[in-house]
UniProtKB/TrEMBL annotation:
The keyword Metal-binding does not apply. Keywords: Signal. Residues 41-53 have a biased composition (Basic and acidic residues). This is Sugar ABC transporter substrate-binding protein. Residues 31-53 are annotated as: Disordered. It comes from Pseudolactococcus paracarnosus. The lineage of its organism: Bacteria, Bacillati, Bacillota, Bacilli, Lactobacillales. The keyword Signal applies.
């Protein structure tokens, strides 16, 4: 699936090898035979277990496979309250794939494990090392079923019918329809540029080419068209443009559709080639890293942009807006289908982003499932997103789904971002986060993205059936797909920089042959099988 566009760490083959080795060689118990100790409190399905559990001196180790995660606990407003409510100390440990591999090789797995990729062997074989959430909920905290999403639990069920992992930002179809899930991608233009150039047709390829020339004439110091950096893959000129064009994700028979070769998309890539040939796409855009891209956005260097994950660019967009209130970047209709298709913008789907597991090695399974239930509950979500009522936020007119910052909190957020992050940590404790709670407070997002989010909301379209359809890591098909993906990333740049249409066509033909040579038919057989399995899951909900 298309995850939230933050720092993502995918597992390597080493993790898969270590996991299989440790599970096989040490003959660890399967989850179905793991003996769970009895709870020390009265279990009540109508009441969160943490409210009944009065045990003291509880400690859990929580590993997160992301080195950037803030390991501090109990020093800020949010985690102080978590510690107090749960009577729990959490020792956060962070690392990369190498560290995760070490854990599985030794068999000494932390109490809770958070990974960032549902396609890995770690996730696919969670029944060999993690505990089923249903077993834990039934024994220790049945209130878990009141706060967990049934669609999400079903989505993560393994072949034994049980669920071992629960993600953050798992959006259901109801979430997409609710209007509370924000759009994150848009074609944007500086307001002052739009005012100066007059009516332009950025929706059609020829109009786009012409519009960029007009911008260059009136604003020679600006880069007419910018886009997300290529350091993470195909930039916003890949699947984001495809979503903007409404390119299908499957054929009519629900088999895999190669969006990169879609006729509509190719037409637009040829338009981008012409824009580059006209000098209206900077060559720096292909070599800039994310920091350079954000720096240019902060200084308003781009006249227009195809922006992916605008929330991740929020600080840059807001810095520009704050210094230039009449020059903000706004979303407009642009880069649209030549076939009359409606945009089908994506967001996080059922797979979410971070996936959280409770290991079979945990010495306190009751407290571990309480953590899951607590953070998934409305109470936990309000705490992690907004802090404490009366201190950092208030409900608006008694509406439990509408909040505003207190004056004191708003001032700190505005004037001292370092203090806001260090002392409050609001909106950062995200392992079980969800967009629908952020919607309670418009100010959860910087003002600079509000209009962009509103513009795209009507185009949000679930793509659940396409989630996690790639071949299993470590297989020959997975290696071939990796080679194809890497080839496409370089091909896309070459297509846009081609000196003429003949070179463009030759470059594209070379890529098509590369796909054939790397067994794309066999890869698509696997994709088709996984699409069908996904559709079956969706029908069973």
């Amino acid at each position: 699936m298309k995850m939230k566009s933050m720092i993502g760490l995918s597992m390597t083959g080493l993790v898969a090898v270590a996991l299989l080795a440790s599970c096989g060689a040490k003959k660890k118990e399967s989850a179905s035979t793991t003996k769970l100790p009895d709870p020390t409190y009265k279990v009540d399905k109508s009441k969160p277990a943490w409210q009944s559990d009065k045990s003291k001196d509880n400690t859990l180790t929580w590993y997160i496979n992301a080195e950037w995660w803030n390991k501090k606990y109990g020093t800020d407003l949010i985690t102080k309250q978590v510690k107090k409510d749960l009577n729990l100390d959490i020792k956060f440990v962070v690392g990369d794939d190498t560290k995760l591999n070490t854990y599985f090789a030794s068999g000494d797995i932390p109490d809770i494990v958070t990974v960032l990729d549902p396609n890995t062997e770690v996730a696919r074989t969670a029944n060999k090392w993690a505990l089923p959430l249903q077993d834990l909920a039934n024994k220790y905290d049945p209130y878990f079923y009141d706060v967990a999403r049934e669609d999400t639990l079903n989505w993560y069920k393994l072949s034994d019918g049980k669920t071992y992992g629960y993600p953050n930002y798992s959006n259901t179809e109801a979430d997409f329809k609710s209007g509370k899930v924000p759009a994150k991608d848009a074609f944007v233009i500086r307001q002052d540029v739009l005012d100066a150039i007059g009516p332009q047709d950025f929706k059609t390829p020829q109009g786009f080419i012409s519009g960029m020339k007009v911008i260059k004439d009136k604003f020679p110091d600006l880069v007419p068209f910018g886009f997300n950096d290529f350091s993470g893959g195909t930039s916003s000129l890949g699947d984001i443009v495809q979503d903007m064009l409404g390119v299908p994700v499957t054929n009519t028979d629900n088999t895999y559709y190669d969006r990169n070769l879609d006729e509509d998309y190719i037409t637009w890539l040829k338009a981008f080639r012409q824009v580059h040939a006209d000098g209206n796409i900077s060559d720096d855009s292909f070599s800039d890293n994310n920091d350079a891209f954000k720096e240019k956005m902060t200084s308003g260097k781009y006249a227009t942009m195809m922006v992916a994950a605008n929330v991740n660019q929020g600080n840059s967009l807001q810095t520009w807006l704050s210094a230039n209130p009449n020059k903000e970047y706004i979303a407009i209709d642009g880069i649209q289908s030549t076939k009359g298709k409606t945009p089908t913008l994506s967001q996080a789907g059922l797979s979410g982003w971070m996936i959280n597991y409770i290991s079979q090695k945990t010495k306190n399974p009751a407290k571990a499932i309480q953590v899951f239930e607590y953070l998934l509950s409305d109470y936990g979500q309000i705490l992690t997103n907004f802090g404490i009522e009366g201190d950092t936020f208030n409900y608006i007119d008694g509406n439990k789904e509408a909040v505003s910052w207190t004056d004191a909190a708003a001032k700190i957020q505005s004037d001292d971002l370092t203090k806001w992050q260090k002392d409050y940590r609001i909106g950062e404790f995200i392992q079980f986060g969800h967009d629908r709670f952020k919607a309670y407070n418009k100010a959860s997002y910087v003002k600079a993205v509000w209009q962009q989010q509103a513009w795209g909301q009507k185009y949000l379209t679930p793509q659940f059936k396409m989630e996690n359809i790639s071949p299993e890591p470590g297989t020959q098909e997975a290696r071939a797909l990796s080679a194809i993906t890497t080839k496409w990333q370089t091909t896309l740049v070459s297509l846009i920089r081609a000196k003429d249409t003949a070179e463009f066509d030759k470059t594209l033909a070379t890529f098509e042959q590369f796909q054939k040579d790397n067994k794309i038919k066999e890869i698509n057989v696997t994709r088709d099988k996984n699409i069908k399995q996904n559709m079956k899951k969706l029908e069973e909900k």
